[in-house]
Design brief:
Number of helices of chain A: 3
Structural class of chain B: alpha+beta
Structural class of chain A: mainly alpha
Largest interface: A-B, 24 and 28 residues
Strand order of the largest sheet of chain B: 1-2-5-4-3
Number of strands of chain A: 0
Oligomer: heterodimer
Order of helices and strands of chain B: HEHEHEEEHEEHHH
Number of strands of chain B: 7
Order of helices and strands of chain A: HHH
């Protein structure tokens, strides 16, 4: 079945738009590799990332609920 | 103020007898073993000196904090600028976790951290078993160096599960 504009059927279009299993595997492995890299960082670099994550997530948390008194980015050196 | 100064303060607290023993737990302990996660405070399990009477009190810790100029904020002590919760060991599992703590070198300061096998168990305790904690426990299972037999042993002895 084709549409009036000559395009393939809906199911054929959907299949063509789906990412391949190979692509998904590469993406998942890339994510896993990132997690492994972060896990193996030197400790001071990890603490620096904690502080950076605090700055990133704080506005997101504040959108959902009132912040608790201790929920502030640490003002310390890693 | 630096993170290492907060760690140094924990050792000072122990050396001065304010606590008998301590171990970093919670999300900051995770950071020592796996990847950084967002957290806004540091949880430290402590064994307090033997109390007179039956009730444990954090009074000694608060007096020590005040003497060092560390402010308190709700249930946190700002140790070198770091909101820190000092949690008296509430049960046998946490006492075991404190005893099993590993010394980790952070910029020349040795600090005691609950090992990942015990972190998993602590996260799976019934009263603390939120979805976030289950997720963190599950993430620790992926650690290449994890002693899976020890995890199974601890979970079995304390009747814990995912």
């Amino acid at each position: 079945m084709t549409f009036l504009d000559g395009m393939a059927s809906r199911s054929e279009v959907r299949a063509a738009e789906l990412p391949s299993a190979e692509l998904m595997d590469r993406l998942w492995e890339g994510k896993a590799a990132l997690h492994r890299r972060h896990a193996n960082l030197p400790l001071p670099e990890k603490v620096r990332l904690v502080i950076e994550l605090q700055r990133i997530v704080l506005p997101l948390i504040a959108r959902r609920r009132a912040l608790r008194s201790w929920e502030r980015p640490w003002e310390i050196e890693p | 103020m630096a993170f290492v100064d907060a760690l140094r303060a924990l050792n000072t607290m122990r050396a001065e007898g304010v606590v008998e023993e301590y171990a970093i737990a919670g999300a900051m302990a995770l950071v020592f073993w796996t990847e950084p996660v967002p957290t806004f405070d540091m949880d430290v399990l402590v064994v307090l000196p033997a109390a007179r009477g039956s009730l444990l009190s954090l009074e000694g810790i608060y007096r020590w904090a005040e003497s060092r100029g560390y402010a308190t904020q709700d249930e946190h002590i700002l140790i070198e600028g770091l909101p820190t919760q000092l949690v008296p060991s509430p049960n046998a599992l946490s006492r075991e976790a404190i005893a099993a703590a590993v010394e980790v070198d952070y910029q020349g300061v040795l600090v005691r951290v609950v090992p990942p096998e015990y972190l998993i168990a602590l996260y799976l305790q019934t009263q603390a078993k939120t979805a976030k904690r289950r997720e963190r426990a599950a993430a620790l299972l992926d650690l290449p160096s994890l002693n899976r037999r020890l995890v199974d042993d601890i979970l079995g002895r304390y009747g814990l599960s995912f």
